[in-house]
Design brief:
The chain contains two helices and seven strands. It is of the alpha+beta class. It has a three-stranded antiparallel β-sheet. It has a two-stranded antiparallel ribbon with strand order 2-3. Strand 5 (48-51) and strand 6 form a beta hairpin. The longest helix is centred in the N-terminal third of the chain and has 11 residues, at 25-35. The chain is globular and about 40 Å long.
């Protein structure tokens, strides 16, 4: 889908080890966005970070390699379509 004019970016921050129904959560979210006809989605793997569930810094540094690096999912579309998509994420992302 091609969008023209003003759009919105929805950023979702999760951990690499997060799953939804026995598969990576990021894959499930991207497939749901695609199935719902949103304009685009990108998944980026972070090289370092920490979050609410762990104050320990997760890193890709070879000396302290983490198995739960940050994942950022960015979904783009018109604001109205993003707003309609948000309730679908409520159950998946806590």
């Amino acid at each position: 889908m091609h969008i023209t004019g003003e759009g919105r970016i929805l950023s979702i921050y999760i951990g690499e080890s997060d799953h939804w129904h026995h598969r990576p959560l990021y894959q499930a979210i991207v497939e749901l966005a695609n199935k719902n006809g949103l304009a685009g989605a990108t998944v980026t793997r972070g090289i370092e970070g920490f979050g609410t569930r762990s104050r320990i810094i997760k890193t890709a540094n070879i000396l302290r390699l983490s198995e739960d690096l940050p994942i950022i999912i960015e979904i783009v579309d018109k604001a109205k379509r993003i707003d309609k998509f948000l309730p679908l994420l409520d159950e998946m992302v806590t």
